[in-house]
Amino acid sequence: MSPEPGEHLLRFAGDRLEVALEHPAPGEKGWRAFLRTDLTRAAAARREVIALAGLREAGRAFAGASWRDIPLGERPGGWRLDLPLTEVGHFRAKAYAVDPAGRQHWPEGRDLGVSVHPDHLRTANTIYCAFPRLFGNGRERERTGPGLQADAVAALEQKGYTVIPPGGTLRDLTRCLPHVFETLGCRILHLLPLGPTPTVFARMGRYGSPYAQLDFTAIDPALAEFDRRATPEDQFLELAAGVHLRGGLLLLDIVVNHTGWGSRLMAEHPEWFRREADGAIHSPGAWGVTWADLAELDPRFPELWETLAQGLLTWCRRGVDGFRCDAGYMVPVSVWQFIIAKVREEFPDTVFLLEGLGGAWEATAALLAEGGMQWAYSELFQNFGPREVSGYLDHALAMGAALGPLVHYSETHDNTRLAAG
Predict the structure, then answer these.
(1) Please, is 36 exposed, middle or buried when counting C-beta atoms within 10 Å of its C-beta (0-12, 13-18, 19+)?
(2) What is the dihedral of CA 141, 236, 337, 274, to 10 degrees?
(3) CA distances (Å), origin 342, targets 47, 90, 106
(4) Do 20 and 2 contact (CB within 8 A), yes or no?
(5) Reduced 3-state DSSP string for 113-156
(6) Burial letters for 226-256: b for 16+ Cβ neighbours within 10 Å, e otherwise?
(7) What is the rounded distance in angstroms from the CA atom of residue 227 to the CA atom of residue 220?
(8) Where are the alpha helices (DSSP H) in 318-385?
(9) What's the rounded Cα separation, in Å, for the pair 71 and 87?
């Protein structure tokens, strides 16, 4: 069989897939060949994922309703199929032959895997990552600290006060779009999470970590200008429209593994959170660090999956084209399959970028394939010397060509190496 069983291919909507199968008994008449696959059945596959949510732990498995047999055409020495790829998603396929007696003959090896990405993601995927708070009046300063007010701020904080200086807003960032898209030539604007965060208790940093979200779909009022004619959501819509008018895509950081301590979900569904043996809410972490301002969600609840999926759909309806999935490797593949299936029922070209730093490559590979994601974090700049960078780049190029591009962020919020240098 060509492509070989067990191989994984990356293709784009509009491409064609050619599958060939050699004749097991050359010259013998009466044989036929088929491709067993879920290609061309993306909608049926999504419906099956959604219908079986939460039932696999009870011993239920996919029924394979999305699979079908497509006949291969005869050619000298075997059979061939030229199949157009029109749907986004992850698919599997394997060709087999049927002899004159009706017996099936399968090539050895696992199924062929095929990830089909949206056509508009073929190239020019340069990402500009923006933290809207940094786009205020201080964006042109060499330092972003409190400056001359440092002593006053320190005195207040020693007395237990919380001091949060004014920061940039969504409209400040909107005013900078010509620079991002026209001057720098970027095509994708990636926003850090926009929801409210803890500012008094369980606060990390001066503003609170943007990854300690208190409401999955809310927009922090501090990121909006006070305008009685335009709500914070209206001002986000202005930003989204500005991106799209320039032919760009808008990505939003989302957090589905955890919330900030004291979140709306914690108040409404405390049973959806992981607990320690003593009943304390569990905080996630990585690299030996515990993120104490975070509360980890428990993925065993399908009702939680539905809530998360509806949250992403809310953002898509506001103009978001894709999501950077923070700590996505900590969330089971089955949960992502459900969330992505729900989103793609309405927005089939949505992009999912996995943040897998700290996780095993096997987890990243599974989420780029069966999980249905398109892109993943590269760890290129987690390497220091030329030899390490060279070796990792070979890996990134090979894996990116088979499973999905690995995005090279120059630095992350978990690593201040470049800023320190």
Answers:
(1) middle
(2) 70
(3) 9, 15, 34
(4) yes
(5) EEEEECHHHCCCCCEEEECHHHHCHHHHCCCCCCHHHHHHHHHH
(6) eeeeeebeebbeebbebbeeeebbbbbbbbb
(7) 14
(8) 333-346, 361-368
(9) 20
- Provide Rg for the chain, Cα atoms: 25
Per-residue pLDDT reduced to its tens digit, 3-35: 999 999 999 999 999 999 999 999 899 999 999
| Signed CA dihedral, 321, 354, 91, 398: sign only | positive
Across-strand partners of 252?
A: 191, 323
Which among 123, 110, 95, 387 is positioned nearest to 249, based on CA atoms?
123
Question: What count of Cα atoms within 13 Å lies in the side-chain half-sphere of residue 49?
Answer: 27
Amino acid at 331: V
- Tens digits of per-residue pLDDT, 290-321? 888 899 999 999 999 999 999 999 999 999 99
pLDDT tens for residues 181-240? Answer: 999 999 999 999 999 998 877 677 777 788 999 999 999 999 999 999 999 999 999 999
DSSP string, 14-38: T-EEEEEEE-SSTT-SS-EEEEEE-
Q: What is the pTM of this model?
A: 0.91
10 and 117 in contact (C-beta within 8 Å)? yes
CA separation for the pair 68, 253 (Å, rounded): 37
244-291 residue pLDDT tens: 999 999 999 999 999 999 999 999 999 999 999 999 999 988 777 788
